[in-house]
Amino acid sequence: MALDLMEQLSATCACIPAATATARITGVSGLAVTVSGLGGLASVGDRITLMKRDGTEVPAEIIGFSGTVARAMTFGSLDGIGSGSEVRFPLFIGPSAPKPGGSLRVSDAWVGRIIDPLGRPIDGKGPLPQGDRTRSVRSSPPEATLRGRLGPRIDLGVRAMNLFTTCREGQRLGLFAGSGVGKSTLMSMLARNTACDVAVISLVGERGREVREFVEDDLGPEGLARSVVVVATSDSPPLMRREAAYAALTVAEYFSDQGKSALLLMDSVTRFCQALREIGLSMGEPPATRGYPPSVFAELPRLLERAGPGLVRPDGSAGQISALFSVLVEGDDQNEPIADAVRGILDGHVVMDRRIAEGGRYPAIDVLRSLSRTVPGCNSADENALTRRSRAILATYADMADMIRLGAYRAGADPKVDEAIRLQPAIEAVLSQGKHDCARLPESFAALRDALDETPIPEDPSATG
């Protein structure tokens, strides 16, 4: 009892700064402010407080230096801040000093809550309980040689993905789609149906009007009950939008470190990169590919690599963060810079096609352009043969679709085309799924087998030992 009390007192004292340094704002340019007077006390990533003329406080972060002058960006509005405004910088002593980049004290009580990127509740349900341990928001990915391997295959509850982009626990997938193709609905299906312990959903730059609709209609009470939702709307400052991604990874890492299977859904990586672009350009970085400064493409792998298997514990187990990062492709161009960079980092990609959505089939997943790099190793030989044959049928039909529609193809000219014409509608029916439906893995493969009128290939008894 006495030991617990001493630990609580020590943690409380660690949150009290030893002193507070003061400085002054000497300029405001665009989204950045210049601060003089901090000398050698501060470093990049440190949090400071700007005082508005009406006495209110605005949190900010130091993003760079020009000589002895610091440059900072705020987590709130710049209105009311001018030259000469006071800046406060708390000074901590010893190992308890907060790390640059901010921190969160995540706890199990965060499940079922909606928070902002700074860990403050925004759902009207009262104060957010704080955990015992402070976690750095800008932590590094686990050491490659010490992290676990991918776990068993995970049931996503979405038939098209279970069949053609089958995933394993700890795998990272990209969801590539243009605007209005249905990716938010697909992500809500994954949040409700995926077999995991907890889901962490990061809405980066989301439309403010759609947040309640997503939480109440798409996610629903059942999905929210096992989720932590981190929200930064499109009108938020770039630091808040950037922080929404880091905060979500920090929350997911908390549950993964407990040995739990966490599902991370981030919508979207593109808006995260746009926030980084705004920050970089405010710092004076040169615009490179399509206006994105080089720091954006350096920061992407540091974010995405944090998802996946955690460090191996003494008992040989490891927590898993299975992640799906959506990418809002500009102009439906699947090779635009952000999409191309993300695709090269992740373990597979799911492509949503506007033409499929316009044809009325949802989710509008183009299975011919989607893949999971772990499929050969996590499905049985019978299941792999089933999906390969289905892909071949869909590819044959896609190649001949124009001729079929024009009536230029005559039945009997090619047996493979005849088979594709006969089976394509049944496969499309299997791929179609309502947003409130849940399709489990065995049911998904059974439905595809029935569509192809396929007899299961018996397993070799000698192979099972």
Automatic annotation (TrEMBL):
Its EC number(s): 7.1.2.2
Cell compartment(s), UniProt: Cytoplasm
Transmembrane portions of the chain: none
Keywords: ATP synthesis, ATP-binding, Bacterial flagellum biogenesis, Bacterial flagellum protein export, Cell projection, Cilium, Cytoplasm, Flagellum, Hydrogen ion transport, Ion transport, Nucleotide-binding, Protein transport, Translocase, Transport
Pfam families in the cross-refs: ATP-synt_ab, ATP-synt_ab_N, T3SS_ATPase_C
Keyword Nucleotide-binding recorded: yes
InterPro entries tied to this protein: AAA+_ATPase, ATPase_a/bsu_AS, ATPase_alpha/beta_chains, ATPase_F1/V1/A1_a/bsu_N, ATPase_F1/V1/A1_a/bsu_nucl-bd, ATPase_T3SS_FliI/YscN, FliI_clade3, P-loop_NTPase
PROSITE patterns assigned: ATPASE_ALPHA_BETA
NCBIfam families: FliI_clade3, fliI_yscN
Protein name, per record: Flagellum-specific ATP synthase
Organism: Acetobacter fallax
